[in-house]
Write a structure and sequence with these properties.
Radius of gyration: 22 Å
Oligomer: single chain
Number of helices: 14
Helix content: over 70%
Shape: globular
Low-confidence stretches: 1-20
Mean pLDDT: 83
Strand content: under 5%
Distance between the termini: 45 Å
Length: 287
């Protein structure tokens, strides 16, 4: 007889309470608010106490741009026949720097949030999303400086500049997919960080950052375009810098070839989401 009230109570109040946090939460607005709060706080803390503040985040890509441009144009004599090559080089460096920064910081984001994860029950997905969002804030300010360089170099604005948010979105989604995947792998395998640093170096030289896609043989071009970053940079060059340069569709050949980079982008995002949803609930136990 004692079992009957317990059964009725379970039916009335639903399943037992699950102490493990949800991945996204039940209220999308609260999730977005949490992400923005974490991202803005992270952005402020990175430059807290610094005299120059945000300027330091511009120093690295600008210094790298200056060194590479001097070497490629005056030593190697490369880029002289490429229209607006300095503009393309700076744009590609800034975009790749965003991807590298976002994914590098995602690797250790769960570990760095250990105290918060152990003490507060909140959607865990907010951590990597806020890291990528913080890097996005940095990218937006960097692109504003790049636009000034565009004007100084005589690049004429066109309506296709409105596609810039789309390029940024695609790169951010790819960074988020990689970041989620790397963050949960790092909890189990601490070797992930140095491995990813090496992988980023390979990805840097395997992407058309220092060079434009058209300098490579046609057969190599299509292999390079399996990389979503290469697709973004190639289309950006056509849409924003040099309309006479081949766009992504002309460079990749038959349209069905776009299936490969699209599958890599979607697959990375899907796999990262799946593994993060599976592992992040119990991440506090492994940190």
């Amino acid at each position: 007889m004692l079992d009957e009230p317990l059964t009725a109570s379970a039916a009335t109040y639903g399943p037992p309470y699950d102490p493990r946090p949800e991945i996204v939460g039940s209220d999308p607005r609260r999730f977005v608010g949490l992400v923005l709060t974490l991202a803005i706080n992270d952005f402020k803390l990175r430059f807290f106490g610094s005299v120059l503040g945000y300027v330091w985040s511009l120093v690295r890509p600008l210094l790298l741009f200056g060194v590479l441009y001097a070497i490629f144009t005056h030593v190697i004599r490369f880029g002289g026949d490429i229209k607006f090559y300095p503009v393309y080089l700076l744009t590609a460096l800034v975009m790749f720097n965003f991807f590298a920064e976002a994914t590098n910081r995602c690797v250790t984001c769960l570990l760095e949030s250990e105290s918060l994860i152990r003490k507060v029950r909140f959607p865990r997905l907010a951590i990597p999303v806020s890291v990528v969002t913080s890097s996005l804030l940095n990218l937006v300010l960097a692109l504003a400086a790049v636009m000034v360089f565009y004007a100084a170099q005589g690049v004429e604005p066109t309506w296709r500049w409105l596609e810039l948010p789309l390029f940024v979105l695609v790169l951010a989604l790819f960074a988020l997919g990689c970041g989620m995947l790397l963050s949960v792998l790092y909890v189990r395998f601490r070797d992930v960080q140095p491995i990813w640093e090496v992988a980023l170096q390979v990805l840097f030289y395997g992407s058309p950052v220092l060079y434009v896609l058209t300098v490579a043989p046609e057969a190599i071009q299509r292999k390079l375009l399996a990389n979503p970053i290469a697709c973004v940079l190639t289309e950006m060059r056509h849409a924003m810098i040099d309309p006479t340069a081949p766009d992504l569709f002309a460079a990749i050949g038959p349209n069905w070839h776009l299936v490969v980079p699209a599958a890599i982008l979607v697959g990375t995002l899907a796999l990262g989401t799946y593994l993060f949803a599976r592992e992040a609930r119990t991440a506090a136990e492994r940190l």
